[in-house]
Design goal:
Rossmann fold, six-stranded parallel sheet, 18 helices, 17 strands
Length: 499
C-alpha cells in the first residue's frame, strides 16, 4: 500500500555516479536545488510530506532511493530536470516503478516545460509533467492522488487520457505571489550548507549558499529558454529578501549568498530599500548578483558595495557588437564597458559572462571577444559553449544556422554540439582553451588570484586540492577527466530528436 500525501523529490545528476569525482564542473560549483527546496516548503505548508534526494551533492544515491521507496512507500516521485539530466531522471523513474509499480512519476523543469506532450509520447516512465511553476500544480496533483483526465480542473499539467494519449490542459491563469511563499526547505537538503559550494574565487567566506529572489526575465534574448516563467517577471520585496537572508544567517550561519536572479537590479527601488536594510541592520553577510548594464549606475553600485556586494556578474556574451545585435536588444558594448569600469571603481569585483559558438560566430568575432574582455577591469570570466536548448528561439532553426548534434546528455553548455556555419568543432575547442589560457596567464589576473589567498582562502584550498582536475580541463577541454564524453547507462532510447 502506497502512502498518499507523500512524495520523494529528486534532483538527478545526468551521468554515471562514478564519474562525479572527476567532473570539473561539479568540483568547481555545487548549487543547491532551490526549486525543489521551494516546492518542499510549500507542500509542507499544505500538509503534504516530502523529502529530497540530490544526486548532484550526493552522487551515489541509488541505494538511498531504493531504501526510501522500500521504507516510506510514497505515492509520488518527482524530478526537477535540465535537458542534460532528463534521461538520468527517466532511469531513476524506471527504477522506482520496478520497485513500486503503483508509484506515479512527475517531471518538472525547463526541459519538459519546453517539449510538453512530446515527453509523454516518447517516455512511458513519465506519468505527468508540470509546465511552469511547480508549487500549486504539484499540490493539486497530489491532493487528487493523480486521478486526472481531460475534464480535470487543474492546470499546468500534462498527462494521458483514457486512451493513453498525452494532453496539456493549459497554463495556470495566475502566477504565484512570491512574498506568500515560505523560505525554501534548506533543511531537507542532506549536508546543507557544507555539501554545497559556490564557484571557486567567487566568494570571500564560508559557509555560503545560493538564493533566488525573482522569477522570469523582462527581456527575450534568442538564446534563453522562457518555457517555465514565459513572459512573467516577478520579485520578492526588499523586506522579504532581507528576512530571507536573516533566516539563512541565523539558522545555517551563512556568511555569503549568490543571487541567481537574471536581473537583480531591474527594480531600482527594491534594491535601494534592500541595501538600506542591510546597511542599517547588518547581518554580517556579503553577496553576489547578476545585473544588466542598463540597470546599474555609480550611486546604486556604491550603495550595494556598502551593503556587502562582493561581486557583480554581467552578460557580455560576445565582444562583437554586430554578432550581439543578432541575439539581444541594446547591444551597446561601449556602454557596457563604461558600466564595467564604473563597478570596478565602486570596488566591487566584476565577472563577465560570455558565450562562444552563437550562430554567426567566426574566428574574427572570437578574437574581438578576447580583445574586448582583456581591455576591461574584469576580474573573472565564465565562457559557456552555446547550446540551442528546447524552448529557446534558436532551437527551432538551429539546423539552418549550422550543424547541431542534439544529444541531451551532453547539452550542458560544456560541449560544442552546435557548430556555426564556417566553423569546425576542432577550431571552436581550440579557441575555447586559448581564451581561458590567455585570460588566466595575464599578469594582472595572476596578481588578482594571488590576492584571493586572503580574500577567499577557502577558494585557494579547494583549488589546490583539485589542481590536477582544473589543469586537465584547461589543457584538454574535457569536463570529466579520463573520458571522451559522459554517458548514462542505456535506457533503451536515444534522444527522439536526433541532430
Amino acid at each position: 500500500m502506497l502512502k498518499p500525501n507523500k512524495i520523494l523529490l529528486v534532483h538527478p545528476l545526468g551521468y554515471r555516479s562514478e564519474s562525479s569525482g572527476r567532473d570539473v564542473s561539479r568540483i568547481a560549483n555545487i548549487m543547491p536545488p532551490l526549486g525543489l527546496a521551494s516546492i518542499a516548503a510549500y507542500l509542507k505548508k499544505e500538509n503534504i510530506h516530502s523529502d529530497i534526494v540530490d544526486y548532484y551533492a550526493k552522487p551515489f544515491s541509488d541505494q538511498a532511493i531504493k531504501e526510501y521507496l522500500t521504507n516510506e512507500r510514497p505515492s509520488f516521485i518527482g524530478f526537477s530536470c535540465t535537458t542534460s539530466s532528463f534521461l538520468d531522471g527517466v532511469r531513476i523513474a524506471a527504477m522506482a516503478k520496478s520497485m513500486l509499480p503503483g508509484i506515479k512519476t512527475v517531471f518538472g523543469g525547463p526541459h519538459v516545460s519546453a517539449l510538453k506532450t512530446k515527453i509523454l509520447e516518447d517516455f512511458q516512465e513519465v506519468d505527468f509533467t508540470v509546465v511552469g511553476e511547480g508549487e500549486e500544480t504539484l499540490k493539486e496533483l497530489i491532493a487528487c492522488d493523480g486521478k486526472m483526465d481531460a475534464t480535470s480542473p487543474q492546470y499546468g499539467l500534462i498527462c494521458r487520457d483514457k486512451e493513453g494519449r498525452p494532453f496539456f490542459n493549459g497554463y495556470r491563469a495566475k502566477s504565484i505571489e512570491l512574498d506568500t511563499l515560505p523560505f525554501p526547505a534548506y533543511e531537507k537538503l542532506e549536508g546543507y550548507p557544507h555539501a554545497y559550494k559556490l564557484p571557486i574565487f567567487n566568494y570571500p567566506q564560508v559557509p555560503n549558499s545560493s538564493c533566488i529572489s525573482s522569477r522570469g526575465c523582462p527581456y527575450a534574448c534568442s538564446y534563453c529558454d522562457r518555457s517555465v516563467f514565459r513572459n512573467s517577471f516577478r520579485y520578492n520585496s526588499a523586506e522579504y529578501l532581507y528576512e530571507h537572508l536573516k533566516y539563512l544567517s541565523e539558522r545555517f550561519h551563512i556568511r555569503h549568498v549568490n543571487f541567481y536572479d537574471d536581473q537583480f537590479t531591474f527594480n531600482r527601488k527594491r534594491i535601494e530599500a534592500f541595501t538600506r536594510l542591510m546597511i542599517d541592520r547588518p547581518l554580517g553577510m556579503t553577496f553576489n548578483c547578476a545585473v544588466r548594464a542598463e540597470h546599474i549606475d555609480i550611486d546604486l553600485a556604491r550603495m550595494m558595495r556598502e551593503a556587502g556586494c562582493w561581486m557583480i556578474s554581467l552578460g557580455v556574451e560576445t565582444g562583437d557588437e554586430d554578432l550581439l545585435a543578432q541575439h539581444r536588444k541594446n547591444p551597446d558594448l561601449t556602454m557596457l564597458a563604461e558600466k564595467i569600469r564604473m563597478i570596478h571603481k565602486a570596488r566591487i569585483r566584476v565577472k563577465g559572462l560570455l558565450m562562444m559558438g552563437l550562430p554567426g560566430e567566426t574566428r574574427g568575432s572570437i578574437k574581438k571577444s578576447m580583445d574586448y574582455v582583456f581591455s576591461l577591469p574584469i576580474d573573472d570570466i565564465n565562457v559557456s559553449k552555446f547550446t540551442p536548448f528546447p524552448g529557446t528561439p534558436l532551437y527551432e532553426k538551429a539546423h539552418e544556422l549550422g550543424t547541431f548534434e542534439e544529444d541531451w546528455e551532453k547539452m550542458d553548455c560544456m560541449h560544442f554540439l552546435f557548430i556555426p556555419k564556417g566553423m569546425t568543432k576542432k577550431i571552436m575547442e581550440r579557441f575555447f582553451m586559448w581564451f581561458y589560457i590567455r585570460h588566466t596567464l595575464r599578469p594582472k589576473m595572476l596578481v588578482g588570484y594571488l590576492t584571493m589567498i586572503w580574500r577567499s582562502p577557502d577558494s585557494w584550498k579547494r583549488f589546490l586540492i583539485n589542481l590536477g582536475g582544473f589543469l586537465r580541463f584547461a589543457f584538454t577541454d574535457k569536463r570529466i577527466a579520463g573520458t571522451s564524453e559522459k554517458r548514462l547507462p542505456s535506457t533503451g532510447k536515444a534522444s527522439p530528436y536526433p541532430g
